Amino acid sequence: MKQAIVARVDIGMGTGKLAAQVAHASLSAYEDTGERARREWKGGGQKKVVLKGDGESQLFELADVADREGLPYAVVRDAGHTQLDPGTVTALAVGPGPDNVVDKVTGDLSLL
Amino acid sequence: MKQAIVARVDIGMGTGKLAAQVAHASLSAYEDTGERARREWKGGGQKKVVLKGDGESQLFELADVADREGLPYAVVRDAGHTQLDPGTVTALAVGPGPDNVVDKVTGDLSLL
To answer: Which Pfam families does the annotation name (chains A, B) (predicted)?
Structure first.
């Protein structure tokens, strides 16, 4: 079981900002995850990988694939108080889910 | 309501690694948070700040303060599969809790 979080690297977020958006996406997708998958993922150490994304349209396309695969997912938009314009899409979390199913969605992306 | 996550910047984590540790800490502290505080925090957009930490002993001292203030918190140790030695303390999440109480714990730290 793992969760993949895709963070946009094309919008110049600082490290702390990016980390907060990743955490936001991670928690939101987790909240949409069934109890059994949650337990299994946490029991295995809540494995997470953070991957490079390069645009809003890419994140939405990956979210569509996650949806078709039946995985929980969450797209995060920034409130825009700092650094970014309000509503900017910053991150997508996919899973937790089985590694091979998550890889169908994000397997082509590079580690951040 | 906010959650503060302190990430160590003294151990050379890459951006993706750091973000994963921050997300891990955030979720773990959230899981120890009461239902009412969870709802209030999420209703306000699950505000998070990511702060600079500079050592394991600092994170444990802040965790003690959080404990005395009655806040949920979580210290994360890395499994050590990549980049770090197994068991390395990487991040501390404090809250969600009222802004002024969280600031009693982490108010002196700088934004990452």
So the answer is: PTH2
pLDDT grade for B79, boundaries at 50, 70 and 90: confident
Q: With contact defined as beta carbons under 8 Å apart, do B59 and B92 qualify? A: yes
Residues of A in contact with B112 (CB under 8 A): 14-16, 19
| ipTM of the complex, rounded to two decimals | 0.95
Q: A-chain residues within 8 Å CB-CB of B26?
A: 23, 26-27
Residue A87 has phi, psi (to 5 degrees) of 90, 0
The H or E element containing residue B104 is: helix B99-106
pTM of this structure: 0.96
A6 and chain B: CB distance < 8 Å anywhere?
no
Residue B93 tokens, joined: 């999440």
> Residue A8: which of A91, A64, A75 has the closest Cα?
A91
Give A65 to chain B, closest Cα distance, Å: 22
